[in-house]
Amino acid sequence: MARNWTPDSWKGFSAAQQPDWPDTADLDRVLKEISGMPPLVFAGEARKLRASLGQVAAGNAFLLQAGDCAESFDEFSAVNIREKLRVILQMAVVLTYSMGVPVVKVGRIAGQFAKPRSSPFEKIGAEEIPSFRGHIVNDSAQNLDARRPDPARLLTAYNQSASTLNLLRAFTKGGFADLSRVHSWTQEFVGSSPEGQRYESIAAEIERALLFMRACGIDVESNPNLHEVDVYTSHEALLLGYEQALTREDSLTGDWYDCSAHMLWIGERTRDLNGAHVEFLRGVGNPIGCKVGPTTSPEYLLELCAKLNPAQQPGRLTLISRMGADTVEDSLRPLLKAVKASGHPVVWACDPMHGNTITSTTGRKTRRFEDVLREIAGFVKAHHAEGTWPGGIHIELTGENVTECLGGADALSDTDLDHRYETMCDPRLNARQSLDLAFRVAELMRD
Ligand code: PEP
Ligand code: CO
After folding, report:
1. Range 148-163 average pLDDT
2. Which of 110, 114, 229, 249 could form a Cys-Cys staple with 161, CB 3.0–4.6 A?
3. Residue 422 backbone zone (phi > 0: left; psi -120 to 50: alpha; other: beta)
4. Which residues contact 283 (CB under 8 A, 6 or more apart)?
């Protein structure tokens, strides 16, 4: 257990990116209510994920972490959750089949609501209004009323997370994720596309392999590994009051766990070594992540590892590099070298999204599929050069047929972006682009 740590010890440190709540008494009342509510996940599940990530750290498995940039209260539906899960399952099948290692599946889901912002205010005409900070805080509509932080939203976020997780558990344990249904994970609009067909041929081979095993007398029916999957939840631990309210002492071990999700991460804007976010996450037993951007120094990173994982527990800490496609190789290599030399058993994952955000000619915030791929290629190359394991990818995607990122399988252009640009925050890969990405990543990892 961490020394000199309590679930509220973060309050003695400065917390970046917290909303300016207009009524703190109201906030305290809501947080008290949430602290009396059931945990969303169990400590034992978080430990199981930590063990699986330990396998990633050792180079025996691969991490696929994916989902929305920001989940929405308005887009909340069973269909939406199912479609996101489908894409994640499809990508995982492609990666598992091509790489021959287990894929640890973690969604940016069931709690990914709070967003850090580069500026606390946004200028709308002559007026300055508070920035949108995610549906857990305020609404994205561009007026003062919508942007006022409202603590009641914390409760809505908790409830939406609970129902999302409930459905995810039903889908992953109740038959939907059964490997014999591998064909049915393809969405209609993906089915006839080249990457859809490519997926179909893998699915057919898996089906044949299952028949083969059955013919050999292997009891395929009763092996749970073929009928259920583990899909874990994760989000950025940004609103520390909310995270604290869901932090509970595990009756089995006496350790503290943040039971709002299996895995929590610290963002690029809140990873100050002496800040409240690092203080909070160092004391919870969950597997945790930290974004690592281009300004990160080896010295900083070693201090971070020592602070967040002093016991050097494999799977405890995932470093999510988000350097930008142009600089990833050069920026990453000294960091890989330093961490390797220190002996810290981290998972290295590549977020190829946040270092490659551009503005389209039509004024949309977007990303080029080619840049996303180029960053992953540079990430893999840097690892090969340093003799470390490129452990996974961290992707912003959706199961819908949106038009938010440029290029890729359906060659979306600047002018296409207007057709279905639906994200509340950063541009996401659509289902076709995501599946295509999985094939390309599998190729990069095999070469
Ligand atoms: C994010 O993951 O949505 C995000 C804000 O990333 P970063 O902290 O790396 O900018
Ligand atoms: Co984002």
Report:
1. 98
2. 110
3. alpha
4. 1, 2, 5, 6, 7, 9, 256
Say if CB 261 and CB 233 are below 8 A apart. yes
Q: Report the pLDDT averaged over residues 366-386.
A: 98
Burial 430-443 (b: 16+ CB within 10 A, else e): bbbbbbbbbbbbbe
123-149 tens-digit pLDDT: 998 999 999 999 999 999 999 999 999
Ligand 1 atom nearest to 267, measured from its CA: 8
Ligand 1: atom nearest CA of 69 is 3
Q: What is the pTM of this model?
A: 0.98
Measured from the Cα of 270, ligand 1's closest atom is 8
With the most atoms of ligand 1 within 8 angstroms of its CB, the residue from 236, 277, 367 to mutate is 236
Contact call for residues 100 and 59 (beta carbons, < 8 A): no
- Judge contact between 315 and 56, C-beta under 8 A: yes
Helix (H) / strand (E) element for 209: namely helix 194-215
pLDDT tens digits, one per residue of 239-249: 999 999 999 99
3-class DSSP state for residue 8?
coil
1 has pLDDT over 90:
no
In the reported structure, the alpha carbon of residue 218 is separated from the centroid of ligand 1 by a whole-number distance in angstroms of: 45
Q: Which residue, by CA, sits nearest to atom 4 of ligand 1?
A: 267
| Ligand 1 binding residues, C-beta < 6 A | 69, 116, 267-269, 291, 322, 354, 426
The whole-number pLDDT of residue 2 equals 86
Mean pLDDT, residues 413-429 taken together: 95
Cα distance between residue 67 and residue 5, in whole Å: 31
For the cut 80, the answer to whether the pLDDT of residue 194 exceeds it is: yes
Q: Which helix (H) or strand (E) holds 200?
A: helix 194-215
What's the DSSP call for residue 108?
E
Do the Cβ atoms of 378 and 328 come closer than 8 Å? Answer: yes
Domains and CATH numbers, the chain: 9-177+228-446 (3.20.20.70)
Is 88:231 a contact under the CB 8 Å cutoff? yes
* Ligand 1 atom showing the smallest separation from residue 268 Cα: 8
Q: Is the pLDDT of residue 3 over 90?
A: no
Around Cβ 66, how many Cβ atoms within 10 Å?
28
- Confirm if 420 and 364 have CB atoms less than 8 A apart: no
